[in-house]
Design brief:
Blueprint lengths: L15 E8 L8 H8 L4 E7 L10 E4 L6 H10 L5 E7 L3 E3 L3 H11 L3 E9 L9 E2 L4 H5 L11 E2 L2 E2 L3 E5 H6 L16 H12 L3 E12 L16 H15 L4 H12 L1
Parallel strand pairs: 1-2, 1-4, 2-3, 6-11
Antiparallel strand pairs: 4-10, 5-11, 6-10, 7-9, 8-11
Length: about 270
């Protein structure tokens, strides 16, 4: 007698919008809450994941973590805790300042692109300089050199986008299980965790899209080098190197892994 295997149903979500932000330091003021009021006309459920004792956000659901599990894993925990009414999740760093209507522009772009799994706004520094916050997926050659090529954010499909501020379709997020928690989150940009997420969404048939008409300011972005990593010294550089090795190991065979190890020793 043939056996019939039950398949897990595809989750069905509502149209509620939530925003997730993660604080890993208590030193900097939160710019996100005030600008969120003018970013959309829709109500927003805010989830604040904190590992550093940062001030709470008024009206937010607070998730306190006893240890720093890294930004990717912290975001995963917050999204997993949302109820099924939430079908859209904005993910933004606490130092992001939304431009007026920026979140509504992202939502409108998502409605026109039903296969868009993640949409990213244009990022600017506090001085108004546009950040190179997207690009093609890196090749083995570029990752062996420790680089992730970045370019100005296009209007439409792109290989990867900066995870500083994103809008994700929850069904797409679930299809790839969100961020890979093995990535610690390097604190530099581009972060290999963001590139990995976009690559897996692309492999699963979802679009990664830039929406430059939506503008946000990243107050944590270095003014002197707005396009590059925030800081590539000491522990940050070491963490980013580990993340790049993870990215290569998950996609290429043993010879590439050996080359990656040798390249990092130079």
């Amino acid at each position: 007698m043939a056996r019939v295997w039950a398949m897990d149903p595809v989750p069905s979500y509502g149209d509620v919008l939530a925003l997730v932000t993660v604080t890993r330091t208590a030193a900097s003021p939160l710019r996100l809450p005030a600008s969120l009021r003018t970013a959309t006309v829709r109500p927003v459920r805010v989830v604040h994941v904190d590992v550093a004792g940062a001030p709470t956000i008024d009206g937010a659901e607070v998730v306190r973590l006893a240890e720093d599990v890294g930004r990717p894993a912290a975001v995963d925990r917050a999204v997993a805790g949302l109820d099924p009414s939430v079908g859209w999740v904005a993910i933004a760093d606490p130092q992001v300042e939304w431009g007026p209507g920026a979140l509504d522009v992202l939502l409108e772009a998502a409605s026109r692109r039903p296969r868009a799994g993640v949409l990213a706004p244009r990022l600017r520094t506090p001085s108004g300089v546009d950040v190179q916050s997207g690009g093609e997926l890196p090749t083995l050659r570029t990752t062996l050199r420790g680089r992730i090529p970045a370019a100005p954010l296009p209007d439409g499909p792109v290989g990867w986008v900066d995870g500083t501020c994103l809008l994700v379709r929850r069904t797409a997020w679930d299809s790839v299980d969100g961020y890979d928690p093995r990535y610690p989150g390097s604190g530099s940009r581009p972060d290999p965790a963001d590139v990995d997420l976009c690559d897996r969404l692309d492999r699963a048939g979802w679009l990664v899209a830039g929406v430059p008409a939506a503008v946000v300011t990243d107050h944590a972005r270095g003014v002197l080098d707005p396009h590059g990593p925030h800081d590539l010294h000491g522990p940050v550089l070491e963490t980013r190197d580990r993340s790049l090795r993870r990215y290569v190991h998950d996609r290429h065979g043993a010879p590439a892994r050996v080359l990656m190890a040798l390249a990092r020793r130079r």
